[in-house]
Amino acid sequence: MGNRWSGVTVDCVDVELVATFWSALLCLERGPSQDGWVYLGRRDDAGPRLVFQPVDEPKRGKVRLHLDVEVDDIDEAMTEVARLGGSTTGERHDYPGAGVVVVMADPEGHEFCLTQYV
């Protein structure tokens, strides 16, 4: 079949705000916008793209799918997320001998995890 993962789409009220946050956090090149949608990454990139789709209603409740962002220093990464307009949820999981996972949120409350492996 030729199926392949091409991207993750994030629903946003303020597409520009959320796309700018993720572009800075992941150092992803911004592609062309189309009909209010913003694309990070290009279709021919090795990895999947992030796509930001405008919606009228804000996020409600817990999203059951999230991104994991692997980092070298969890404390520095948490500071960077806050500087970019994100926040911590207060949830942290320390796994002795394995690493740490901290649940964060982007400017519209979409949760994601910062992970640091040892």
Explained architecture:
Strands 4-7-6-5 form a four-stranded mixed beta sheet, covered by helices on one side. The protein folds into two domains: 1-57, Roll (2,3-Dihydroxybiphenyl 1,2-Dioxygenase, domain 1), CATH 3.10.180.10; 66-118, 2,3-Dihydroxybiphenyl 1,2-Dioxygenase, domain 1 (Roll), CATH 3.10.180.10. The chain starts with 6 loop residues before the first strand and ends with a strand. The mean pLDDT is 91. With 118 residues, it is an alpha/beta fold. It has two helices and seven strands, in the order βαβββαβββ. 19% of the residues are buried.
Give the helices and strands, then pairings.
Layout: E1 7-12, H1 15-26, E2 38-40, E3 49-54, E4 67-70, H2 74-83, E5 87-95, E6 99-105, E7 111-117
Parallel strand pairs: 1-3, 4-7
Antiparallel strand pairs: 2-3, 5-6, 6-7
Count of distinct strands: 7
How far apart, in Å, are the first and last alpha carbons? 38 Å
With helices defined by DSSP (H or I, 4 residues minimum), what is the helix count? 2
Percent range for β-strand residues: 35-45%
CATH topology group of the largest domain: 2,3-Dihydroxybiphenyl 1,2-Dioxygenase, domain 1
Q: Which structural category do the helix and sheet elements fall into? A: alpha/beta
CATH H-level homologous superfamily name of the largest domain: 2,3-Dihydroxybiphenyl 1,2-Dioxygenase, domain 1
**What does the main sheet amount to?**
4 strands, mixed
